[in-house]
Design a protein that fits this description.
heterodimer; A: alpha/beta; TIM Barrel; three-stranded antiparallel sheet; 39% helix; globular; B: 75 residues; alpha+beta; 3 helices; elongated; Aldolase_TIM (chain A); S-adenosyl-L-methionine (chain A); His-Xaa-Ser system radical SAM maturase HxsB (chain A)
C-alpha cells in the first residue's frame, strides 16, 4: 500500500490537519499522527486513507492516475500571452496619499505614449499569436488619454477573435465621451473606493466637492452597468475602520466583493505609510472582517465576499483557481501577461514597474520597439515554484499556496530568505489557518457564507472529513 | 528538557535537528543517547521538535514515491 506524503499542522482546537501534495485533506488527532509517523497505521487507518484518496495499492492504476490528475490540477501552466496591461499615460488628476502606481501630475509633459509608441504598441499587439486577449488600461489616469484607449480598443477588436477590456480609472473626471467608451459590454471599470467615504476624501479626493463628484460618477457607473464595475479599497494599517462601516459603504453601491488590500509595500506609498511589522494587526483585522461578513451574509439577501479570502478558500477546495496573478504555483512572470509602460518598456508585473521606478531593481523585459528580452525575468522564474522549497515541502498548505518573488524582492532585496520568515508566507499561513478553522466549523452561519464564497451549495461533510 | 526519540527516527535525527535549529535559533539542542536535550521548557517547543523529526522521516521515506509521481506528471 502506498500512502502519499501527508504534511500536518496543529489546528487551533487541538486536532491536526493533514494534507497531501494534491490538496486532499482531513482532520485527525495526535494518536493518528503518532501511528503515521511510527509506521503503526491500523487497518482502519488504511481504509480511511484509501477512501479519502491518500493511499492506493501498487497495482491500482486508476487511483494512482486520479491522484496524479488532482496534483496536476494544482499547478499553474502559463498560457500564451493573452493579458496585456497598458499604461498610456503616467499623468493623473489626483494625488492620492497612498498611490500604488507610479504617477506624475496632470500637466507634466513627456509621460504619455507618443504617436511612435502607439504605433509600436499596435504593431506588437498585431504580432501576438493568441486569439483571445484581455487589455487592461492603467495609469496614471488612463481616461486622460481617451483617444489612445479608443485607438487601441478599436484595433484589438478587429485583430482578435475575442477581446475584453478593463479601464482602471479613479472616476474623478469622466467626460460624456468617456461614459460612451465605458458603456460597451466588452469593457469593465475598475476603480478605487476607500474603506469609508471619509477615508476616501482624506487620502484621495481631499475636498468635499471632489468627493461628491467621484461619488456621483461611481453611482452613475453602478447604475448604468452594475455587472461591469468593481472597486478596490486601500487600508492604512494605522487607521483600520470598523468592518461593518466598510461593508456598509460597499453595499450602498451594490458592490458584492471587497478586496482587503493594505497599502502596497512595492510602491511609493511606503514612504508615507507603515508597511512593515504590520502583519499581526492586519491578520487580526482580516479575521474580524471575515466574521463580520459572515454575520452580514446570514441576514442579507445580497451576500458579500472578501475577494482574497474567497479566492484562497476556492484554491483549498479544488485546483485550477489561478486567476489571481499573485497566488500561483509556479508563478511564472512575464509569460502570459505583461505590462507596457508609458515609454513602451515591458515589465513582468505592475509591481515590478514600481520597483524599477524606485531604483530597487531593473526588471524591464525589453520594449515594444525592440522586442522582449526575457533573460533577467527567466532567472527569477527559475525559482518561481514552492514545489522544492525546503520549508514549503513540509507545509500542509503547499498545494493551495504559491510564491510571489516580486514581493520578496521588494521587501527583502532577495528571493532566498527562509520562507517562513517572509511576509508572504506568514500572511498566507494565517489565511489558510482561518480557512480550515471555518471549514471545520459547525456554525450554520459560517457554513452559509463558506458555501457562497466557494461556489458550493453546501459544505458537504465528505469534503471536510475527520478521521478518529 | 529531555525528549525521548524512538529508534525508528534515528536515521533522520541529524537532518531534523539541523532544521529545528534553523526554525528555532534561540533554542540550543544537544543530541544524547536515545534522546535530545533542549534549553527550553516550553511544551510547545518540545512538540515542535518531535514534529520536525516526524516531518523529516515522512519526507525521506516518501521521497521516492513523490519523485516518481512528479516524473510521471512532467514526462
Amino acid at each position: 500500500m502506498n500512502v502519499v506524503p501527508l504534511k500536518f499542522r496543529p489546528m487551533a482546537d487541538d486536532g491536526f490537519l493533514f494534507c497531501d501534495d494534491a490538496g486532499g485533506f482531513f482532520k485527525s488527532d495526535e494518536g493518528y499522527l503518532e501511528r503515521y509517523a511510527t509506521d503503526a497505521l491500523t487497518f482502519e487507518d488504511y481504509r480511511f486513507l484509501t477512501s479519502n484518496g491518500h493511499a492506493f495499492d501498487e497495482g491500482n492504476h486508476v487511483a494512482r492516475h486520479a491522484f496524479r490528475y488532482r496534483w496536476a490540477r494544482r499547478f499553474h501552466i502559463p498560457s500564451e500571452l493573452n493579458y496585456v496591461i497598458l499604461v498610456p499615460t503616467l499623468r493623473c488628476n489626483l494625488s492620492c496619499a497612498y498611490c500604488q502606481v507610479s504617477r506624475v501630475n496632470e500637466n507634466t509633459p513627456g509621460h504619455d505614449w507618443s504617436n511612435e509608441t502607439l504605433a509600436a504598441v499596435i504593431a506588437w499587439l498585431e504580432s501576438l499569436s493568441t486569439k483571445e486577449i484581455k487589455i487592461e488600461f492603467q495609469g496614471g489616469e488612463p481616461l486622460l488619454r481617451l483617444d489612445l484607449l479608443e485607438k487601441v480598443r478599436s484595433f484589438v477588436r478587429s485583430r482578435f477573435e475575442h477581446s475584453s477590456f478593463v479601464v482602471c480609472t479613479n472616476l474623478q473626471e469622466v467626460t460624456e465621451e468617456a461614459w460612451d467608451f465605458l458603456a460597451s459590454d466588452d469593457t469593465n471599470v475598475s476603480t478605487s473606493l476607500d474603506p469609508t467615504v471619509d477615508l476616501h476624501q482624506r487620502h484621495r479626493t481631499v475636498g468635499s466637492a471632489s468627493t461628491q463628484q467621484f461619488l456621483r460618477n461611481l453611482r452613475r457607473a453602478v447604475d448604468q452597468f452594475p455587472a461591469r464595475v468593481s472597486a478596490l479599497p486601500t487600508f492604512d494599517i494605522d487607521a483600520l475602520p470598523d468592518p461593518s462601516a466598510v461593508i456598509e459603504t460597499y453595499a450602498s453601491f451594490g458592490l458584492a466583493s471587497i478586496y482587503l488590500r493594505a497599502v502596497n509595500h512595492q510602491g511609493f506609498a511606503r514612504k508615507r505609510f507603515r508597511t512593515r511589522e504590520t502583519l499581526q494587526t492586519w491578520v487580526s483585522y482580516v479575521r474580524a472582517f471575515i466574521a463580520a461578513l459572515i454575520d452580514y451574509n446570514w441576514n442579507s439577501e445580497s451576500p458579500m465576499e472578501e475577494y482574497y479570502f474567497s479566492h484562497c478558500l476556492r484554491r483549498v477546495i479544488r485546483g485550477g483557481h489561478d486567476a489571481h496573478v499573485d497566488l500561483r504555483n509556479p508563478n511564472i512572470v512575464g509569460k502570459s501577461y505583461v505590462v507596457v509602460d508609458h515609454d513602451g518598456a515591458f515589465y513582468p508585473t505592475d509591481e515590478a514597474r514600481m520597483m524599477s521606478r524606485l531604483g530597487q531593481i531593473d526588471l524591464r523585459m525589453g520594449n515594444v520597439r525592440d522586442g522582449m528580452d526575457r533573460r533577467v525575468v527567466d532567472t527569477v522564474n527559475a525559482e518561481a515554484t514552492n514545489l522544492f522549497d525546503a520549508d514549503c515541502i513540509h507545509c500542509p498548505y503547499q498545494a493551495f499556496c504559491g510564491v510571489d518573488l516580486i514581493d520578496d524582492l521588494s521587501r527583502y532585496g532577495r528571493i532566498d530568505l527562509p520562507r517562513h520568515e517572509t511576509n508572504f508566507c506568514q500572511r498566507h499561513m494565517a489565511i489558510f489557518d482561518l480557512a480550515f478553522e471555518l471549514l471545520y466549523s459547525n456554525d450554520p452561519k459560517v457554513r452559509h457564507s463558506l458555501a457562497l464564497w466557494s461556489g458550493l451549495e453546501d459544505i458537504d461533510p465528505t469534503l471536510v472529513r475527520v478521521h478518529a | 528538557m529531555l525528549i525521548e526519540i524512538a529508534p525508528v527516527f534515528a536515521p533522520y535525527l541529524d537532518e531534523a535537528l539541523l532544521r529545528f535549529s534553523y526554525l528555532h535559533p534561540e533554542v540550543e539542542v544537544f543530541k544524547r543517547d536515545g534522546c535530545v536535550e533542549i534549553t527550553n521548557e516550553d511544551p510547545a517547543v518540545a512538540a515542535s521538535l518531535r514534529h520536525t523529526v516526524y516531518r523529516q522521516k515522512i519526507y525521506k521515506e516518501t521521497f521516492a514515491l513523490r519523485q516518481s509521481l512528479i516524473e510521471s506528471l512532467t514526462g
